[in-house]
Predict the structure.
Amino acid sequence: MLGTLNPSGGGDPIPLMKREIVIGRRPSCDISLDFENISGKHCTLRFMNGVWSVRDLGSTNGTTVNGSRLSSEQSVMPDEELGIAGHLFTIEYEPAGPEAFLSSHKQIDEEVVVERERHSLMDLAGLDTDSAQAARPKKAPKVIERLSADEAEFDDTVPEHFKKPPKPKSAPTNDDDFFNLIEDEVKKPS
């Protein structure tokens, strides 16, 4: 026996007798888990170099190790939680292999844990939260100097593209005379 697959919520341990095991809902799988959310062929467990590893087989509901969804094959140590479509297991076995591999695996696990730290939406958006503002030294506001209207120099020239084209001159009509008369009346002070 190479180890046991133990359901986290309780249940009978499943002995791991072969070096490569297919887990799924189909009765033809090495380990058949009869749950609707588990795919026909869900994942494989492989015992290589004294360590169990898991690979998802394109399942609908995914396979996870410690809550992180798998995109490639990953080793599973005895203290880690294997999730098969939300059903949680641990693999009980004694890992073998060089100490360098085992210690580097622990270091990788610590890096993964650091990456999974939760951040507020404010942090993710790059905005300061209250705790971040308290820890960060405050900067003096940037002073922008502006000239007053009296000190500022204005360029009275208007670029050509802002000028209105002149109205075409046409012969005056009786209507033009009427409009001019109205304009004169409006402009006169009362």
The two ends are 111 Å apart (CA to CA). The CA atoms of residues 170 and 176 lie 10 Å apart. DSSP finds four helices and eleven strands in the chain. Residues 107-116 have pLDDT under 50 and may be disordered.
